[in-house]
Specification:
Layout: H1 59-76, H2 79-82, H3 87-105, H4 111-126, H5 132-136, E1 140-146, E2 151-155, E3 158-161, H6 169-182, E4 193-197, E5 203-207, E6 217-221, H7 230-235, H8 241-252, E7 257-261, H9 267-274, E8 284-288, E9 300-304, H10 318-325, E10 332-335, H11 342-350, E11 358-362, H12 366-379, H13 386-396, E12 399-405, E13 411-423, E14 426-440, E15 446-452, H14 460-465
Parallel strand pairs: 7-11, 7-12, 8-9, 8-10, 10-11
Antiparallel strand pairs: 1-2, 1-6, 2-3, 4-5, 5-6, 12-13, 13-14, 14-15
Helix pairs in contact: 1-4, 3-4, 10-11, 11-13, 12-13
């Protein structure tokens, strides 16, 4: 029980609600053996002279009322009993208390508005405050907070302003600290940027002063409660069924795959979908900055990097995680994102019996992805020649899948390229499938079609050797792969 419904200390004494400033002493409450009658809460000083029934229509008034009621409930919560209540019981009691306080505060609301207001107060107590409804909305992919007074969301690939605000910077900071503390991280003036994850696996990033000039900045990349399968990506138009079938067969045949693309292009979603092709008999080890992969295999060992502590010590980078993962008997190593000197250790893993490993990388084209890998290996300061690095890349990587978010918000696989080896000092690649943009529709939508280049991939022999059938007619460059079904 909470608030006025629970008043007994562990020692058996009666707990009284603390007196509010200028309101005098609180009335004594009933013993714990019988249910206490709700104590009357005096209207806040400064509100008594207002006419009854006057509704505070200003959004800031409602926000301040919500925070004030939240603080009042926190003062009355019996924390020892709070953990024993489930969400439904806690929500019912919060609703009852909020309904009473709303009457005493003389906030003119109808029944539905009181329920909405009580839900907002409950979210402020146990959830993430004003953005909790946005997190529950499955049509929203991204939540972007630019200070306390501006919140944008992405729906259907387009950004729109959400009718949500915070009371002030401190209110937003409390929500940020609540999130990062749950995963053992921190954010303050000495470390004003933080990466974290929400309990549902959604990606969270925040930047505060002095980095953020106009208030705290927050970006939340939501993950669907229902993981996107390769079939759903096909139904959404991300790629044709024949391309999806080829990628599924290649991953199953242990072709080492790198998924390349820009921010928000769907790299992690595509990696999750393609991982379904991995046998359930294999042991997978994932390495990420913030654990967000949703692999469906039963044998998955997840590792996460760690930032430095207050003293600047204790940092664990991806490179150390990759080295340690190789001692853990993995069949495949999956990196959430390659962004630094761990690229060399990843290439070493892919070349030493861990074929079929997967990773994502930020790049605009498959060729740019190769160039970035070379640059990241150079960041490690290793005494390795450029030719040796390129040889490692050519022998380690099989496929590069390029994902892109188009101008109209569509996310598509725009290229599937295969690394075929070295010719002199140049890494050779051949494009198997590509997206050919043909124009723009009347509503600004991108028009185009997926085509095959006409080249037969080298990995097709491995696919067929495993007994997986694939119709080689789909490599015909004259066919529109979007309109024809396998």
């Amino acid at each position: 029980m909470i608030g006025r419904f629970s008043t007994q200390h562990k020692a058996g004494t009666v707990k009284a609600a603390p007196p509010a400033p200028s309101e005098g002493a609180a009335k004594p409450q009933a013993p714990a053996t019988q249910q206490a009658a709700p104590a009357k809460v005096l209207p806040e000083p400064g509100r008594r002279d207002k006419k009854p029934g006057k509704k505070p229509r200003a959004k800031n008034d409602l926000l301040s009322a919500k925070l004030r009621i939240h603080s009042k409930l926190i003062d009355e919560i019996d924390l020892s009993d709070l953990d024993q209540l489930d969400d439904a019981s806690l929500r019912r009691q919060v609703h009852a208390l909020v309904a009473e306080i709303v009457r005493e505060e003389r906030l003119a609301m109808n029944a539905s508005e009181v329920v909405s207001f009580a839900n907002a107060v409950f979210d402020e107590m146990t959830g993430l405050g004003p953005i909790e409804p946005l997190l529950q909305d499955e049509s929203i992919c991204d939540i972007l907070i630019n200070g306390p007074n501006q919140v944008y969301v992405e729906r259907g690939g387009e950004l729109e302003l959400a009718p949500v605000t915070f009371a002030d910077d401190d209110h937003l900071l409390r929500i940020i600290n609540r999130i990062v503390s749950q995963v053992g991280r921190r954010v303050d003036e000495s470390h004003p940027m933080v990466d974290a994850r929400l309990p549902d696996g959604s990606r969270f990033n925040a930047a505060i002063a002095p980095i953020a000039v106009d208030g705290p900045l927050v970006s939340i990349r939501k993950f669907s409660t229902k993981p996107l399968t390769i079939e759903r990506l096909v139904s959404f138009g991300a790629m044709p069924a024949c391309v999806a079938e080829f990628l599924h067969a290649a991953v199953h045949a242990r072709a080492t795959t790198v998924i390349s693309g820009g921010t928000g292009s769907g790299k992690t979603t595509l990696l999750n979908a393609l991982s379904a092709a991995i046998s359930h008999k294999e042991r997978l080890i994932t390495i990420e900055d913030a654990a967000e992969l949703q692999l469906q295999q039963p044998h998955v060992a997840r590792m996460e990097t760690r930032p430095p502590n207050v003293e600047g010590k204790g940092e664990i980078r991806q490179r150390e995680c990759v080295k340690n993962a190789l001692r853990m008997r993995p069949d495949r190593v999956i990196l959430g994102e390659v962004r630094g000197e761990e690229a060399f250790d990843m290439l070493q893993a892919m070349n030493t019996g861990h074929e079929g490993s997967m990773a994502t990388i930020h790049a605009n084209t498959p060729r740019d992805a190769i160039t970035r890998l070379e640059q990241m290996v150079a960041m490690g300061g290793l005494n390795v020649t450029e030719e040796a690095v390129r040889g490692q890349i050519a022998s380690a990587i099989g496929l590069i899948v390029q994902a892109s978010r188009l101008a109209d918000g569509q996310r598509k696989v725009v290229s599937v390229a295969e690394v075929t080896g070295m010719e002199g000092n140049v890494i050779q690649m051949q494009e198997i499938f590509y997206f050919d943009r043909t124009g723009t529709g009347p509503n600004g939508e991108v028009l185009g079609e997926h085509r095959a280049s006409g080249l037969r991939p080298k990995c097709l022999d491995d696919i067929l050797t495993l007994g997986t059938h694939y119709n080689t007619a789909w490599f015909d460059p004259t066919r529109d792969l979007n309109r024809e079904q396998p």
